[in-house]
Amino acid sequence: MAEQVLIQFRVDKDLKQDVADICDALGTDIPTVFRMCMKQIIITRGIPFSTRLPEKAVTREEALDAFEEMRRQAADVPEMSLEEINGEIRSARADRRDIDRYG
């Protein structure tokens, strides 16, 4: 088996729960769906779903404003403690063991 790495990122709690609920209804989980997406990126050599700009083009100023707003929101996100990071790693490893065990 190839060496594995842990990928972490932050996402809105409600968004994560909505996605987890849909994945659960489909009989899968978020890590499996993300791995599937990554494989499809390799197969298609691109983003495996349509990506389009909105009808109205976003100006540079609007994009910079949106970026600054995201930075302001991210500033409120507390840093993870070492124990929280280790907990995330333990959880990811447990998920991986379950996937390996049950397919």
From TrEMBL:
Keywords: Toxin-antitoxin system. It comes from Candidatus Eisenbergiella pullistercoris. Signal peptide: none annotated. Belongs to the RelB/DinJ antitoxin family. This is Type II toxin-antitoxin system RelB/DinJ family antitoxin. GO terms for biological process: DNA-templated transcription; regulation of DNA-templated transcription. Coiled coil: none annotated. InterPro entries: Arc_rbn_hlx_hlx (IPR013321), RelB/DinJ (IPR007337). The lineage of its organism: Bacteria, Bacillati, Bacillota, Clostridia, Lachnospirales.
